[in-house]
Amino acid sequence: MGKQARKRRLPEALKGEYRPLLQCTNARVQGEAAIQTKVTMNEMRKVLAEFRAKGRDFKQLATVHDEILIEAPFDITEKERDKLVEVMTQSYLLNGVANESDVEIYTQRWGDAIRWDDFKKERGY
């Protein structure tokens, strides 16, 4: 096995004539994911602007792969949370199929995430 194939962990068969086929498939998947993320980010920007127009302090902080990190007020409501999930799952449908989205709350540090249901229990909702 060649050095490049080992590095990428590709079978020897994929080095030759089949390699363009693999790259073509991967490019389609990567490209579709990039489009999906960009469309969702644009829709999220609009929703966060609506929240800010109502006096709510929401900010889009970063995008990491397929995640959008949002700074939200500690008193975020279930209705606001549902709207954020709707944007994440419905902004870009591939063949009419909705996406899946998890909501995690970081109250202190990045590594201390808690699930939405646990956050609600803590707050007495």
UniProtKB/TrEMBL annotation:
Coiled coil: none annotated. InterPro entries: DNA-dir_DNA_pol_A_palm_dom, DNA/RNA_pol_sf. Keywords: Exonuclease, Hydrolase, Nuclease. Pfam families: DNA_pol_A. One of its GO terms (molecular function) is exonuclease activity. Residues 23-93 form the DNA-directed DNA polymerase family A palm domain. This is DNA polymerase I-3'-5' exonuclease and polymerase domain-containing protein. It comes from Listeria floridensis FSL S10-1187.
